[in-house]
Amino acid sequence: MAQFGDLFSVKGKTALVTGGSRGIGEMIAAGLLANGAKVYISSRKADVCDATAARLAQTYGGTCVSLPADLSRMDGIESLAARFAEAEPKLDILVNNAGASWGAPLDAFPEAGWDKVMDTNVKGVFFLTQKLLPQLRAAAAEGPPARVVNIGSIDGLKTAAFDTFSYGASKAALHHLTRFMAAHLTRERILFNAIAPGPFPTWMLSTGVGFRGETENVDWASVGRRNPSGRVGSPEDIAGLTIFLCSRAGEYVVGQTIACDGGAVAAS
Fold this sequence. Notes:
This protein is of the alpha/beta class. It is about 45% helix and about 15% strand. It is built from 10 helices and 7 strands. The radius of gyration is 18 Å and the shape is globular.
């Protein structure tokens, strides 16, 4: 007889969410924390990361720990991995969400904009995962499979409306890197999947649609009306999908890129 009682549970798991101080990363961290996981978050700005960790812990209870790091640089990646290893012997869930974007006209697109985005969105994901393999392997050896969820984008599945050439290319690369890593590590019980978010009320999208980085008291409904679902995404949408992939319910889902976009890719 099938057992469904804890099918979507992440209670007691240890998670690290990069780019967890705002936006989609914060939404995912909040969802994991609210459902009983111990959550570490990382972002480049230490004061913001510390404040978000304290606020999430106060709001949802449980333990949320700040580990600031610049994941566009190898020294930042190595520092984060070392500090996490000092704190925890195993890692059940790694959410690679830290990302960067750059917009410029094609004829003027700078090398700096290409390198920053690729270093953060592709190189950073690969090498942080590599450095944390001992903790992921330790988790997989002791219990259910460890999970790695890479946060891509629908811009890696379809052509974006913005002049973000390196961003779209980086997210397409990340989706394929997810499949590549799954092919190598599923047999070690480390399961890889990617999520490709569509429009969510984040700082990054706010800058692209003319809201100048503001996420509160702006007209997100006007953005949502362009989407087949008629709205932008909610924290429950992205956190719920992440929890599914990291729970027993998602254990047979491997190497996939799942759009969480309200139908934007389907309609393109």
